[in-house]
Amino acid sequence: MEKSIFKPFLTVVVLMVLATLALAFTVDVKLEDAPGVVTVLPDQLDNWVGNELRFCHNKKCYENTPAQGQYYIRDLEFPDICPDCGEQLYSMSWAEYDALPKDTEFVKSAYTNAAGERMFTSIVLSGRERNSIHRPERCLVGQGNTIMDEYVHEVPMPGRKPLKVMVAVLERPYNLPDGKTKTYYSYYAYWFVGQDRETPSHYARMFWLGWDRVVRSVAHRWAYIAVSSKREAEGRDYEKGLDDFVQKLYPAILVKDSPLKASPSP
Ligand SMILES: [Zn+2]
Q1: Counting beta carbons within 10 angstroms of the beta carbon of residue 31, is it exposed (0 to 12), middle (13 to 18) or buried (19 or more)?
Q2: Within 10 A of 133 (CB to CB), how many other CB atoms are there?
């Protein structure tokens, strides 16, 4: 019975979305170049100390170094020179560089606090092409993770509504030197930010991308922000550390006059 009531509405909604997306790819719009966040991760966020990552694109360094050509900037004598081969270092790995449009901006850092917790953080800012940001779950599974659970978590934000982030609860097997297998328990939290919009949903971002192109004649340079760390095998105790970190990170990377600082998007 319920199905027959909702079916016509659902059809209309689906048609509207399809029409919006169809228009989005045919209507000529000016690209609003100003992004909603900066692609700079601060050296320090209160009690969290950052260490940015750099990547060597020389395949020999990828194959022959334990960290696969990945270096922490605080360990480097010269911030942009590979200590192993002397070539230039980049802010993204060669695989990411190959896969992404060249105007994509990318920054990654690992933050640690006095308790020894470590937060891996990244900002990907899309360029003029639309395919800079993929559905994150695809990459997580590609890296050998199993997604045990996924849910929207609200991070309390002083002075405004909570920030909704998508949390993927992960586990991944890894081998010890003695041949035994252990499990690495982690989580991966992410959200997307346009100029005046934020959403934890990849599909909502796709919708706003189409909607804003048609209705407001603007196209955002969407940013994709991710924070990940390890967790206990059971429970959600990690949310405390996640909240603390995101409360400090997010206001620091929003552009100066961002409307998202005080009031969230609809
Ligand atoms: Zn190198």
Answers
A1: exposed
A2: 19
Q: Kindly give the distance from the C-alpha atom of residue 90 to the centroid of ligand 1, in angstroms, as a whole number.
A: 10
Q: Three-class SS of residue 3?
A: helix
For ligand 1, the distance from its centroid to the CA atom of residue 25, given in whole angstroms, is: 41
CA of 66 to the centre of ligand 1 (A): 12
Residue 1: per-residue pLDDT: 47
Distance 126 CA to ligand 1 centre (A): 26
Q: What is the 70 CA–ligand 1 centroid distance (Å)?
A: 9
Note the pLDDT of residue 133: 76
pLDDT of residue 124: 92
| 85 within 8 A of 56, measured Cβ to Cβ | yes
Q: Measured between alpha carbons, how far is 102 from 237 in angstroms, rounded to an integer?
A: 39
Q: Which two tokens stand for residue 24?
A: 């989005």
pLDDT recorded at residue 167:
98
Judge whether 222 and 209 are in contact, CB under 8 Å: yes
Ligand 1 centroid–CA 87 distance in Å is 6
Residue 58: predicted pLDDT:
93
- How many angstroms does the Cα of residue 133 sit away from the middle of ligand 1? 27
Residue 57 Cα to ligand 1 midpoint, Å, equals 7
Average pLDDT over residues 57-65: 89
